[in-house]
Amino acid sequence: MTVTRRTALISSGAATLPRFAIAQADQRPTITVAVQKIANSNTLDALREQSNVGTRMMTMYVERLIDLDYQGKLEPRPGLATAWRRIDDRTVEFDLRRGVRHHNGDEFTAEDVAASFSAQRMFGDTRPTVQGKTLPLSGQIVSTTASKELPREIPPVARRLFPALDRVEIVDRHTVRIVNATPDVTLEGRMSALGAGIVSQRGFNEAATWLDYARKPVGTGPYRIREFKADQSLTMDAHDDYWGGRPPIRTLRLVEVPEVSSRVNGLLAGEFQFACDIPPDQIASIEKNPAFEVRGGTIPNHRITTFDKNHAPLRDPRVRQAMTHAIDRQAIVDSLWSGRTRIPAGLQWEFYGDMFIPGWTVPAFDPARARELVKASGYKGEAITYRLTNNYYTNQTFTAQALVEMWAQVGLNVQITMVENWAQVFARGPERGIRDWSNSAVFNDPVSSIVSQHGPNGEQQQYGEWTNDEMNRLSLELETSTDRARRRTVFARLLEICEREDPAYTVLHQNATFTAKRKDIKWSAAPSFAMDFRAPNFAV
Fold this sequence. Notes:
By secondary structure, the chain is of the alpha+beta class. Among the domains are: 140 residues, Dipeptide-binding Protein, domain 1 (Alpha-Beta Complex); 215 residues, Dipeptide-binding Protein, Domain 3 (Dipeptide-binding Protein, domain 3, Roll). It is built from 20 helices and 18 strands. The chain has a ten-stranded mixed β-sheet with strand order 10-11-12-1-13-18-14-17-15-16, sandwiched between helices. The chain has a four-stranded antiparallel β-sheet with strand order 4-5-9-8, covered by helices on one side.
């Protein structure tokens, strides 16, 4: 029998025509989301882009062994691991999900986990230290990951997230063990943090440089990256082999629109379907149009102001204490947030459970006490520099202006210096004084917030702004102790040091995030900066 093109098509029709028909019938929408910033680092690597804006996009393309319930209260739930168990106080074993495909078509296996946590991928030529000793990474983390020169910012982030990571043991193709060098009751929580994302070993190996990889990481998430234009846009396509079900959006675009008014106007004009980072005072005007609504609320992130105690006027802790007592936080919540957030109990969250310290409060608004502290310090009116970016945080500029006025009322001369980016905010120099920041609890334990951000491996100390010997000793104890009662006592002491005695920061209010969208789109905002566009949470 002669096989012609026509007979070949007919005989293979069962395999060919349905696929063609499915492609033709793909009516999934293209969705455009307007954001004020896509990525601070202009990369898409979770270890490099540890930020509020990075959190928003990461879950779209990279997943962790332990996921969080973004439609609940961020409780841990199975992700790329279907189950996990404690082997001992240093080791957690994970059963890996079978049948998962990376964006490049490769099967997800234990080798990808080992590669994602390899020394080359996380620490470069450096190694984490415990009690001043460099970890040997016994047996080396199993990996064939090609060596790539990492940006200098990556190893400090890895040490902060995994301060005593020893190795990954591959038990079999679908079972791994994460082994720590010290006891750590928070290992499971650390594995749910965004920096614990799993990427394709081959995808990383085949990238010519770290930057090539970081601009197009290959993960297992519901959307795969098509194109990233720094400071402009991120375009992703549906990963139709996604283990969690066919993604509901064909093409998902994030576009950078810095001005709030432009995001709102673009949404109302149909240019965007979602507009992020909406200030509370804009909500009512958007919802006057019956075709649109605003979703969102408080999230496990606190807005804070941090101090550089190398700055001459701030060396005396009494000046920093005065600044904490001069702030009328309730006025900020009522006037700038329309009462849609709250003043929290310091740098902690109720989901810490029995590690939460009841009765603890932010420093009281007490202008008289603030004036007494200023006088006792001998402060002579020297300028205190306040480096400020232009509304990276919602209401950032208005909040800064209110703070400056409150500090002026107690005799403190704070001067705003507008800068363009975070590199300029953190640049060392005698004029570096105070700055804005936020602090997230990425899992349900204080080491995820107060230690991670302000401890010896934390960003504030790495930037050289602040340090405290007792805080550093207690941070190590909090990270390694298995005595729950003792850990709670240590945490309470850390709050006293960092918020009262030798202020590293002061908490302003709990953060909240609001997203405006078309009302006909069925979508719920997570209690997080992260945006969830998986099948159960999107429909038109």
